[in-house]
Specification:
This protein has 237 residues and is an alpha/beta fold. The chain has helices spanning 45-53, 74-79, 97-107, 113-123, 139-151, 169-181, 193-199, 217-221, 224-236, and strands at residues 7-16, 19-29, 34-38, 60-65, 68-69, 82-85, 157-161, 185-189, 202-207, 210-215. The structure holds adenosine-5'-triphosphate (ATP).
């Protein structure tokens, strides 16, 4: 029997009132693979991400994690080995960096919570900031705190919504190195084309709620439909 993909999305359809945001979207993410979901503004990337996280309820379609229906609640997702970072970061600004990273580990009642949180902080160069309230840190460090919080749980599937957004070149480079070191499955929604081309094993391109191309980054980059829909616009900007 073949192993099911870590994440499998089939026939995903999401509508907001009369607006169809996603219309029959299929994609998979396998263990050890980084898949980027790209597309122009309004293409449906965040909606797809939110449907995978259970934040948006699809009208049709399925989201499966390792062959099982994806849990909708945050703790259920964590137990299924899924961690995510959101565009808005969602940090508890008055809690320290360490306390923020401890939050999901505590909800999982992990007996090694403290050691895992400190290791994640160390891995992301945040140890010196461990006892500072998260809200007092500069944006790149707050963003790394959100990533540390996700990585501390040891996810099998990591979902990243615009991880490079708002970062400068040095921080984007460090982020790419961090992602390249991971051995879990990664789904990343991102606008930054160079970053996507660097970290993604496969790229899925959405336009008007449909998948218009999927494949290796170089193949997708040269696809005329993609150039017209997204990369062309981006290059002309
Ligand atoms: N909560 C909502 N209510 C109504 N319409 C929504 C909602 N969320 C998204 N949409 C609409 O659904 C479509 C897809 O939006 P979505 O945010 O998923 O696109 P995106 O590809 O992530 O865009 P961006 O790159 O700008 O973040 C857009 O037309 C958007 O206006």
């Amino acid at each position: 029997m073949t192993t099911p993909p870590r994440l499998s999305v089939r026939g995903l359809r999401v509508a907001f009132g009369g607006l169809t945001a996603l219309d029959g979207v299929d994609f998979d993410v396998h263990d050890g693979e980084t898949v980027a979901l790209i597309g122009p503004n309004g293409a449906g990337k965040t909606t797809a991400f939110n449907a995978v996280c259970g934040l948006v309820k699809p009208r049709n379609g399925t989201v499966r994690i390792a062959g099982r229906p994806a849990p909708a609640r945050p703790t259920g997702l964590l137990k299924a080995g899924v961690a995510r970072t959101l565009q808005g970061l969602g940090l508890f600004e008055h809690l320290t960096v360490l306390e923020n990273v401890l939050v999901p580990l505590t909800s999982l009642r992990d007996p090694d919570a403290d050691a895992k949180a400190r290791t994640a902080l160390d891995d992301l160069g945040l140890t010196a900031h461990a006892d500072r309230p998260a809200g007092t840190l500069p944006y790149p460090e707050r963003k790394r705190t959100a990533l540390a919080r996700a990585l501390a749980t040891g996810p099998r599937l990591l979902l990243l919504d615009e991880p490079a957004g708002g970062l400068g070149p040095a921080d984007i480079d460090a982020l790419a190195e961090t992602i390249e070191r991971l051995d879990c499955a990664v789904l990343v929604v991102e606008h930054h084309v160079d970053f996507v081309m660097r970290v993604a094993d496969r790229v899925v391109v959405l336009d008007f709620g449909r998948v218009i191309a999927a494949g290796a980054p170089e193949a997708v980059q040269g696809d005329p439909a993609v150039e017209a829909a997204y990369l062309g616009l981006e290059a002309a900007a």
